[in-house]
């Protein structure tokens, strides 16, 4: 019972992180537009987050190795909180771009540490359940954070302070622990060539999803603002897209377990491309048509990355899941960084609806690639596939998320050291304990 309570305490910590992250991401896009930031600056704010997030995913394990999980998490939460508050005090585009990169770095580090603790206490028989609950909680919390903007609005200090409170409170489940720290964080296994040799479709999918969803996640709020939506309307718009995207993972994931996953990718990416093209053609004013198009986009686009990861894993050799998923994570991060900048330039040169030229183009690229690859390579028999696993927001996947994924059970992970550092206060008392017993 004690271990169950502690696991759910970590779920609470993760939920607070995602709540603050969901609120902050949407808030900065809309508030930046209200402040008159250029479209390029707004795009670079999204780029800054992605660059910082990828950098944090790679370097935070080294920091944790030196100072331990609790201290590292406290530092990440504290700096992340400060950056949110500095967004309020320094309202200019250059400051927000730099602060967003720092925020992404801290968010990646904090999320990895929580996931590391969950991974340590998860037994093989319960890993799938824990992973599923974790993904569901993160999706729900991130969506609630976005919806919160409809209550707080974007003016004044309240939304920034609420985000800061959420982020700093996430430290409590780890800061209050009296148990030893888990083993060091897993090093990111990155082998892009192995990924491409294993599945060219998965590599193209990671980049296409990064370009499309990076642009959409950063600049779609700006598009909504330019078309006349207020803060409440934009929050609801994104909530609808996120909820339908989360729901869509289950039926499409199960369908991909029974038929060639590339057929599912063709259907999803093709549909997302059509929705993007329709949005460009209709360019709807604020109203029901915009909600329908955003809902359709979320339903089609959000499951793509999880299906692509499952497709790559179908062709992977035993023990290669982490390397392949890590390669996809790097390519995804590159797309997430480039997408907002490119989309902002198209929006500035032509029209705000130019955002959806990017989403339509890159989803079409993925659909065509998957179709051509089906003519070259046969699919894996359904009986030989690992079951599909739903995944959280593709902008928040870390190397530790990969380790927590039950499909990674057979992998031989590379750790930055053999043993986790023992806090001084525990070392002096001799209470080193055993993390595998479920103590956190």
Question: Can you characterise this structure?
Answer:
This is MFS transporter. Residues 429-440 have a biased composition (Polar residues). Residues 390-440 are annotated as: Disordered. Keywords: Membrane, Transmembrane, Transmembrane helix. Helix 1 (2-34) packs antiparallel against helix 2 and helix 2 crosses helix 4. The protein is mostly helical. The protein has helices spanning 2-34, 39-67, 69-89, 93-121, 124-152, 158-169, 172-175, 192-198, 200-226, 231-258, 261-282, 288-301, 304-315, 321-349, 355-374, 399-404, 424-429. The chain has 17 helices and no strands. The two termini are 13 Å apart. The longest helix is centred in the first third of the chain and has 33 residues, at 2-34.
Task: Describe this protein with a few key phrases.
MFS transporter; globular; MFS; 17 helices; transmembrane; 440 residues; membrane; disordered C terminus; MFS_YcaD-like; mainly alpha
Helix content: over 70%
- Secondary structural class: mainly alpha
- Tell me, briefly, the overall form: globular
Our count of helices gives 17
Based on CA atoms alone, the radius of gyration comes out at 21 Å
Largest sheet: none
Topology of this protein?
Layout: H1 2-34, H2 39-67, H3 69-89, H4 93-121, H5 124-152, H6 158-169, H7 172-175, H8 192-198, H9 200-226, H10 231-258, H11 261-282, H12 288-301, H13 304-315, H14 321-349, H15 355-374, H16 399-404, H17 424-429
Task: Give a nutshell description of this structure.
The protein has 440 residues and is mostly helical.
